Amino acid sequence: MDPEKFLIIAHRGASVQAPEHTMAAYRLAKELEADYLEVDVQMSKDEVLVSIHDLTVDRTTDGSGVVADMMLSELKQLDAGSWFNRKYPDMAKEEYVGQKIPTLQEIIEEFGESVNYYIETKKPEENEGVEDELFELLGQYNLLDESLPEGKVVIQSFSEESLKRMRTFSQTIPLIKLEKDPVVGPDARRRLEEIREYAIGIGTYFERIDDDYVKTAKEVGLLVHLYTVNSAEIAEKWKAVGAHGIFTDNIPGTRI
Ligand code: G3P
Ligand code: CA
């Protein structure tokens, strides 16, 4: 979380080159030297944290149904990679066929402390208790230890309530408030000051802000991470404005 370093956050893994939220996408993101692996987490019906973006499995697997209504054993039967080969034949690889929805535990077991994690509690209002499960898992793998480099694990959410709950679990873990509709203009400072009370930064759409927004956020003392930036030109622009990093699907394409 060094404010001087412009962070490359692998959005859903290396998700241009590999099926999002799979081990293949995370392995590639590590290989491509992303600063962070971004992982959206939800809970299965039997309360296991799984890595998937949508509330249903329909788009990114060969199954259908609501993640929260499915047992881990059901989720594990799905193929989370073949859709990618069909949709992006230029990027298709045989190894993507049969990729599984990983649990967060599997991701942590594979990468341990060798990577940094940028974890999102996805729709926590529909995943009651997700924060408790997350902190229990992080604690189990010693990822909350004060001896680790600062920012080894960053937590993000669109939900203020979820972030505030996690702040009660840890006074030090970096929390990022995701803003879908950032308040720009004269009210920006007031809104950003509210966020600063519990978070150290914001994540927001680069298309919905302006240079002044970044300047004000920095004055308030917030980090600014922008999504989803998939070109070097846009990355360069926002780096020059003073943003602290980008979420990108395309790590090689945004190298600056
Ligand atoms: O976490 C940043 C960005 O990922 C938020 O949007 O919908 O891609 O999770 P989404
Ligand atoms: Ca996300």
- The assigned CATH architecture is Alpha-Beta Barrel
Look at the structure and give the CATH class.
Alpha Beta
CATH level-4 homologous superfamily: Phosphatidylinositol (PI) phosphodiesterase
Question: How many domains comprise the coordinates?
Answer: 1
> Class by helix and strand content?
alpha/beta
- Listing every helix as H and every strand as E from the N terminus to the C terminus, the arrangement reads EHEEHHHEHEHEHEHEHE
Number of helices: 9
Could you please describe the fold and organization of this structure?
It is a single chain. The chain is of the alpha/beta class and 256 residues long. It has a single domain (7-254), classed as Phosphatidylinositol (PI) phosphodiesterase (TIM Barrel, Alpha-Beta Barrel). 30% of the residues lie in helices and 17% in strands. The chain has nine helices and nine strands. The model has no long low-confidence stretch (mean pLDDT 97). It binds SN-glycerol-3-phosphate and calcium ion. Calcium ion is lined by residues 38, 40, 120.
In brief:
The protein is α/β, with parallel strands linked by helices. It is 30% helix and 17% strand. The protein is globular.
Which key terms come to mind for this protein?
single chain, 256 residues, alpha/beta, TIM Barrel, 9 helices, binds SN-glycerol-3-phosphate, binds calcium ion
